[in-house]
Automatic annotation (TrEMBL):
Alphabetized Pfam families for the sequence: ABC_tran
Domain of life of the organism encoding this protein: Bacteria
GO annotations of cellular component type: plasma membrane
Residue stretches making up the ABC transporter domain: 8-241
Stated name of the protein: Daunorubicin/doxorubicin resistance ATP-binding protein DrrA
Length: 317
């Protein structure tokens, strides 16, 4: 891919870690073939299960470790060999914050702002992220959500061109979550390239302009949310209808052989696939013939979580 239109490009990334005790000093290949790209003015999500390779991919993208194969270009430069000039153009928000526990929020932000040529106004970040209410509290005494908001402010204070966000809504209450989401959308509209990782797929579906899914160290899917959730073949679940009724119903005679139908739990039923208006008519006619009055009915489009589970499986890793 051409790097001219991207703030981050990763092509054919390979990364080995080790040696591992008990394996005769052999290296373990944790990234085998990852492609990823992010544009300015977009939120690009990197999704994967625990152990899929997200953290290692981002460590290579941020210049925290070198690639063992493939290429990584952050703002057109190899981040591993880059100097302070590149790092000053990049903001990183880590999930655990990486914040000094004895510091106080506003004092820390002012200290960080003095390290940059054109920082964002500290007062603006304090007001926008609601940091004023705990401005003089030691970081070790802050709640998880307060630390998340402060970590985001620290990532933004240098006025970066590229922003890495690791689980930005973790631990946030609904009000704080909304504030953070609105800020992310504003930063995107200002032209920042935002790379987002999260286990909350609803967040990714809401925020991301483009999504990459990796599994077992490889890129397995990419596209916009609409592209990924669209029905692409006969097995794709483009829509899911769920209803509750008396347990033990047999949907085999409902006249929907082209759809996936079944009782997922006692009295809970699912109809999935390319559901059309005619299918709804058949289902309601079947209810009428059988004298069934559902307790609840819900029809939804295929979600990013559906896609993720189809690609990575449902087993806990």
């Amino acid at each position: 891919m051409s790097t001219a239109d991207y703030c981050l490009t990763i092509e054919g990334l390979v990364k080995d870690l080790g040696p591992v005790n008990g394996l005769d000093g052999k290296m373990i290949r944790v990234i085998a073939d990852v492609d990823f790209a992010a544009r300015p003015g977009q939120v690009t999500a990197l999704l994967g299960t625990n152990g899929a390779g997200k953290t290692t991919t981002l460590a290579c993208a941020q210049g925290l470790m070198p690639a063992d194969g493939g290429t990584v270009r952050l703002l057109g430069t190899d981040p591993w060999n880059a100097g302070a000039d590149l790092r000053a153009r990049v903001g990183v928000m880590l999930q655990d914050g990486g914040l000094p526990p004895s510091a106080r929020p506003v004092a820390l932000l002012k200290h960080l702002s003095r390290m940059y040529v054109s920082p964002r106004p500290v007062e603006e970040l304090v007001e926008r992220l609601g940091i004023g209410s705990f401005a003089s509290t030691g970081i070790r005494r802050l709640s998880g959500g307060q630390k998340q908001r402060l970590a985001l402010a620290c990532a933004l204070v240098g006025n970066p061109e590229v922003l890495f966000l690791d689980e930005p809504s973790a631990g946030l209450d609904p009000q704080s979550r909304q504030i953070v989401f609105e800020l992310i959308q504003e930063l995107r509209d200002e032209g920042l390239g935002i790379i987002l990782t999260t286990h909350l797929l609803d967040d990714a579906q809401r925020l991301a302009d483009y999504v990459y899914i990796i599994d077992d160290g490889r890129t397995v899917a990419r596209g916009t949310v609409a592209e990924l959730t669209a029905a692409s073949d006969e097995t794709a679940r483009s829509r899911v209808l769920t209803f509750t009724a008396e347990p033990g119903l047999d949907l085999a005679d409902a006249g929907l052989p082209h759809l996936e139908c079944g009782e997922t739990a006692a009295g809970h039923y699912t109809v999935a696939g390319g559901i059309l208006p005619a299918d709804l008519a058949r289902l309601t006619a079947w209810w009428e013939r059988r004298g069934i009055m559902p307790h609840s009915v819900h029809l939804a489009s295929r979600t990013l979580e559906d896609v993720f589970l189809e690609l990575s499986g449902r087993d806990i890793r």
